[in-house]
Design a protein that fits this description.
This protein is about 40% helix and about 20% strand. The chain has about 475 residues and is an alpha+beta fold. It has two domains: about 5-290, no CATH class; about 425-480, Arc Repressor Mutant, subunit A (Orthogonal Bundle). Bound molecules: adenosine-5'-diphosphate (ADP) and magnesium ion (MG).
Length: about 475
Amino acid sequence: MSVYDKYEAVIGLEIHAQLSTKSKAYTSDSTEFGSTPNTNISPISLGHPGTLPRINKANFEYAIRLGLAVNADIRHENQFARKNYFYADLPKGYQITQDKTPICNNGYITLFANTENEKKINITRIHLEEDAGKSIHDQDPFNTLIDLNRAGVSLVEIVSEPEISSADEAYEYVTEVRKLVRYLDICDGNMEEGSLRCDANVSVRLKGSKEFGQRTETKNMNSIRNVKRAIEHEIKRQIDIIEAGGKIEMETRSFNAVDGTTFTLRSKEQAHDYRYFPEPDIQPVTILNEEIEKVKSHLPELPNDLFKRYTNDLGLSAYDANIIIDNKTSALYFNELIKLTTNYKAAANWLNGAIKSYLNENAISIEDFSIEPKFIAELIQLIQDGKISNSIAEQKIFPEMTKNPTLSPLKIAEENNLIQESNDDAIVGFIQQVFDENPNEVSRYKNGEKQLTGFLMGQLMKVSKGKADPKKANQIMRELLEK
Ligand code: ADP
Ligand code: MG
């Protein structure tokens, strides 16, 4: 047993999700990403004296959507507080946040909804706050540049209970959160651009111990994979220190993606005292039950519900279901497709097989896929009716459809003479031709080399240019050979 096996990890994640509202939390400034620096600003987001923040109601609706999706309690009386600190990218000198009255409490996210060992991770709270600006350290060799476009953009912070017990579970949790915010259309979930950011609180303790160890908090992971790498490193680092007789210091650390390590950013000695106090410029915001009910009635079908429906009602495998659900647009496409065919398995196979490969090979996202579900449904029907074979559909017709998305697959099949021959006489004709051309193989078959049917069927597909209905042809050929 390695020393690492003596320990268990305790992990709690704080996720900041930038809300995709059009304007910022307290001003009408645009929130568009990638605008010229310092153009999406106003006296309010710059914190000029005498300016007053104005509430953007969309923030509340977005946060309620998320709260309902994670089964949280929604607070009716929302207060705001000032979190005071000095930093160059925070011109006001304070951030407006919710401190003691988060808009949501007591939610949960279900992990591994696809297996028996389903696990719930409780969410302590979700609160609204505003983002700070961005300090840019790598563009000018002598100065730090500041872009205040982000200052005042709305965020929700989602704080989990310390119930995540491995780097893999953390990966799963962030994946679920990202999927959820995308399904809910409240955040684009883009970690590279910083619209979704995750801070990982990690501690370790001896297995069976009741008390938590000292935790560290690691920031600056720009992908879900890096969240996992950072946590893996942090667990090992902490165990190594404890095993060497050392002590974990409470500190904030940063992740280095190049070598997968973490390093100290600031220690406890420099810990902030934010001197929270109630925000005097914003009245408490009351959320009525009717408003919550209205948001609830507009919630989309969520990933876990889709998963249950696909696996329980449609009989898809967990594997297939997860690939479809992974992306909201592909789930929507699938939902359209299964309104038009009841061959759910075939629908999943097309979406996760030929369509996915085509999209990958051409670096197209499903949003820009040009073939309508009705034509994929028709293609499935043609195969089911024995009019075309699966391989003709995949190799000849589907590629043609991608080039001519307005042509129906039946039309393509007819125009290219690809309709399958299931007429017995025609098939017998093809078989006779194969027998005539391969007399040796036929007599060897008759002498007991039964595996030669494979070869003969191959020849038959060649002779018929792939148009002979393989099931029928196989059956007739065996009958003729056994005569
Ligand atoms: P802070 O403002 O100090 O970061 P928060 O309460 O906002 O405190 O967040 C604390 C986060 O750390 C939560 O996600 C919580 O689950 C997690 N956490 C608390 N204690 C531990 C611990 N001992 N080990 C790991 N994570 C912890
Ligand atoms: Mg924290």
